[in-house]
Amino acid sequence: MKRSFKLLTLLSVFVLFLVGCTMEGDNKSTDSSASKDGDHVIGLSISTTNNPFFVDLQKGVTEAAKEQGMSVKVVDAQDDTATQLNGMDDLIQQGVDIILVNPVDSDAITPAVESANEAGIPVIAIDRSSAGGEILSFIASDNVEGGEMAAEFIVEQIGEGGKVVQLEGIPGSSSANERGEGFMKGAEGKLDVVASQTANYNRAEGLTLMEDLLQTHSDVQAVFAQNDEMALGAFEAIKAAGKENDIIVVGFDGNDDALKSIEDKEMTATIAQQPVEMGRLAVQAAKDHFDGNAPDAEIPSPLKLVK
Q1: 131 and 156 belong to one structural domain
Q2: Are residues 174 and 288 in the same domain?
Q3: What would the pLDDT profile of 56-95 be if each residue is shown by its tens digit?
Q4: What is the pTM of this model?
């Protein structure tokens, strides 16, 4: 009897061992998001999915990757540099084949880019570049040109010497630096830029900042916001002050809300980027790399004025 009990116990342990091995194998295949053998895995570190522009950018990446038979792992930085660094580290630890990054801050992202370089993972920057580390390719609109386009349009609308305020993007981001550079270049000697302050590419901050600016610069004639989210916030403040017929608002990006606002005769214009196309261009650059063809160091995405 005792012998039978021991045999039964040993059999039970053996069965449990087999089940455990099977479950472990199942977990390994579930945890891996890599697709079929030979497929490449793209890691996408996006600055925020709270901004429609970057939602469209992500869409362009995922659609193009699917067409190319690649899979994508997305990490959302939520406009926080520490969160983005952690997300980049996760992608590196998971061993993705390439990382596409849209930095929150061009300086702060440098250590993560350098870590990817050390791990042998190529990095492609989209819309905003990295101040350091090795970037395989940089896909972006010509932000300097876009800033100049905005200034030239405002001069056409309000005339030389007109008073204008600029709402700046996230300090340290390459897009904010370049758009500001282009705008100030286009405004030099033609516009009176009475204030230029940051609203961090955020709609709510754009509204609050514009409320304050209207208190100190009640005679302002135009606003240039370095993205559409800030422009939409600024317009709400202007409308609340009853000045929507006195102040023109020009944004940058061409997101759906801004285009609707322009159609409704609220915002005046935007310098429209093509974020879906930018995402597709980034995936094409990745494919070129995988195919053994070096992509261009800089790949431009076209801009257009929408009014």
Answers
A1: no
A2: no
A3: 999 999 999 999 999 999 999 999 999 999 999 999 999 9
A4: 0.75
